[in-house]
Amino acid sequence: MTTAIDTSAPPEFHELSADEVLLLLSTDPASGLSPEGAAALLARTGPNSLPVAPRTSLAVRILRQVHNPLIYVLLAAGAITAVLGEYVDSSVILGVVVINAAIGLVQESKAEAELAGLRSMVRTSARVVRGGRERTVPSEDLVPGDLVKLEAGDKVPADLRLTHSTGLQVDESALTGESEPVDKHVDPLPAMVPVADRRNMAYSGTLVTAGTGTGVVCATGAATELGEIHRLIGAAETLATPLTAKLAGFSRMLTVGILALAAVTFAVGLLRGHDAVAMFTAAIALAVGAIPEGLPAAVTVTLAIGVGRMARRRAVIRRLPTVETLGSTTVICTDKTGTLTENQMTVQAVWTPVARYEVSGRGYEPEGTVRDDSGAAAGTDRDRALHWTLLAGAVCSDASLVDHGGKWSVVGDPTEGAMLVAAAKAGLDAAAARARWLRVAALPFSSERLFMATSHRHAADGRPLVLAKGAVERLLDLCELEMGADGTTRPLNRLAAASAAAELADRGLRVLATAVRPADASADGIEDLDEGALAEGLVFTGLQAMLDPPREAAAAAVAACRTAGISVKMITGDHAATATAIAREVGLIGTGDEAVLTGAELAALPDADMAEAAHRTGVFARVSPEQKLRLVAALQERGHVVAMTGDGVNDAPALRQAGIGVAMGASGTDVAKEAADMVLTDDDFATIEAAVEEGRGVFDNLTKFITWTLPTNLGEGLVILAAILFGAALPILPSQILWINMTTAVALGLMLAFEPKEPGIMTRPPRRPGQPLFTGTLMFRTALVSVLLVAGAWWLFNWELANGADVAQARTAAVNVFVTVQAFYLFSCRSLTRSAWRIGMFTNPWIILGLAVQAAGQLAMTYTPAMNAVFDTSPIGAGTWLRILAIAAATSLVVALEKRLRVRVEGSAPQQR
Ligand code: ATP
């Protein structure tokens, strides 16, 4: 008998059972692929990464540069002047279009490359089983057939067919748009189930929100579902930020206004009987001169330079607008462990209901002693509570110690590592203990549960055992008994344990309690540990207290923030006393301050009081991740711009809510990094402060560019307007205006983007969020400088004419007035408050380079016959140059006086005005 088998399509992985998939991919369910096999396969399949999105073609990129109302106007003007036979003007105009597009293109590519380069700084890794050993490999090295372990917080590194799932939940919104996490299982599914409902698969790029699991890789790189989507939409990185959007809007408005003005000029000129062609090109010149075309490019370049500077200080920006927001940060909410402290734990004291012990030694070297109050070495046989305290710490744990030739480190949680070291110092062999007590099930640690528990059976006789360790008050609540010296139990002396814990926490130590359910108790529920059944018969054994020293740079960074008007708040899962002690050490709160709120107190607080409490309090202890979200929202309600750190899965909502979500690059989960705006590659609090400083610098440089460019643009427009209104000869010709505009924006203005930060940048208050860029100060300055420019150029033009120069020479003089005044004014714009002299000539070498280039350009334009012909210029004498320099010097003097007066009247905080 034959059966009809449909051979048209091979079965998909979700249709097969987990065993069939493993067989198909030749993966051993216990030991995975062999390392050699995986390497060989990798050579064939290529890295597990998405192909770089095909770049938009050059033609499209160029067209994008040209797609701008202003350029349309220019193109039209170029075409009309060509038809009219004004070939020089038309080629100059077209030349401007080409140069403008080329500059835009180069700058855009540079900014994009900078952002793309950052992505590779935050690498993801995956835990795989290869050759029977679990190891961490870069996600790019995964191959089909690899056995991958997943836990809450991971980003799924490739498409996996699940082989194990313990409460595994995955957020698949990146793929399906569905925001609720979905439960995963391992059972085969019918063929037609769509991707979004394949519960036995975990797809690359999705995020594990709960549980643990194992899966076998069935597709990598471009072959994954994510790769498919990526191919469809292409991953275009947008360079737009709220600021660029605002500026684009401003430019559009300006374009319309200026075009209207140009039209009026044209009409007035015609009415006065001027030549239509000349009036038309003059009107065009007015438009081109008055529009700050360089502005969008300058913003992108300045932001990109800022992103680069931040990356060098180990803050990786994931979203460009963050660069702007950083400058106006008013509150930084930071966690304690690993950010303010080193996350280098060492157990310093152990307390049991029997005795207290001090532990010597530092770091993870298992060298040191455990001695009791009398100085005698601790005997775990004399104090069974000590034995079980250390054993619970070492066995109810997923960490291990690694010896790199005498230099020890922890794989896993440093808190657990410290307990392994403490056990070793007392002579307890953790590896042997783990082999003796085989683990049956585990209740993993979470920031909500605040403890971890494991159940075991004895390797020899199968006796059951439950171990637990965690936050003191949590475990004391679970226990009714405590252990005595001989290992027998007695009623818990809660008060004694709690006051011992408080005393240790006041020393700034992180205190954990341990408990056991002894082997002779019942084995109920040990197969699937659940929180409810656990408490039955749990016996408190003691406390371990560990030191996590503050980071060296933390205190200075906290102080710097304070000077900068930014308040720093600690939001930690740790105990209030420990948190307070560390907060004092880093200067976050004063000695007398008792500004601490616990999670329980926060929970009891009515919503109405929340904003005030959040604003006033410096330390929040035993806070759950959900409360972090509430705190951010409350602070925002008070008008704060909040930067918030986070590392766990449950921190993601708070990170998203915060103005700046900050994730830990080294210790954070993928979920947190994904939700964050900025990732600290060194997890250090001081890096946030550095990023804020850079953010302020970026904003300063933008303001400087705008302050420089607006007056020059307005001045150029005004000169033409005035000439036509007064019926005088044009002091500068359209082609000359185009020359001035294009060369100075690139050679002079853009160099402000490289300006180093000003010294006082962290001594002034944060920029008010939403503060307009175009302040009254800026308007006044724009008016002042443009009037000075026009007056200078106008005066010299007429003076030269009156004193025997021809029109070409007089115009050459006027053009040079414009450029020279702009060059001098550039120095004034290098600082918003300090005078040009005080900054130091050579602190920004780019400016010097730009000046040299511009000077060469001016000399060529003035003295080379070829350029004389193109631009209608003519050589001028030394006397004229002296007059030009005198005008520029006089203008600078007036600007310097204005700046000084303003600083004196309004104080030295330009950002506040
Ligand atoms: P921060 O938010 O500043 O990083 P944290 O790291 O101290 O704070 P959690 O990791 O949430 O916050 O820890 C909170 C408490 O849970 C600790 O004070 C400790 O009592 C307990 N705890 C921490 N790690 C473990 C662990 N691996 N096993 C059991 N309990 C733990």
- CA radius of gyration is 35 Å
Strand share of the residues?
15-25%
Find the CATH superfamily of the domain at 346-547: Calcium-transporting ATPase, cytoplasmic domain N
Per DSSP, the total helix count is 32
- Main β-sheet, in a few words? 10 strands, mixed
Please, what is the average pLDDT?
Answer: 85
Number of strand segments: 27
Assign the CATH class of the domain at 346-547.
Alpha Beta
Bound molecules: adenosine-5'-triphosphate
The CATH architecture of the domain at 346-547 would be 3-Layer(aba) Sandwich
Structural class: alpha+beta
Low-confidence stretches: 1-7, 233-237, 909-913
Distance between the termini: 91 Å
CATH structural fold name of the domain at 346-547: Calcium-transporting ATPase, cytoplasmic domain N
Helix content: 40-55%
Please tell me what the overall shape is.
elongated
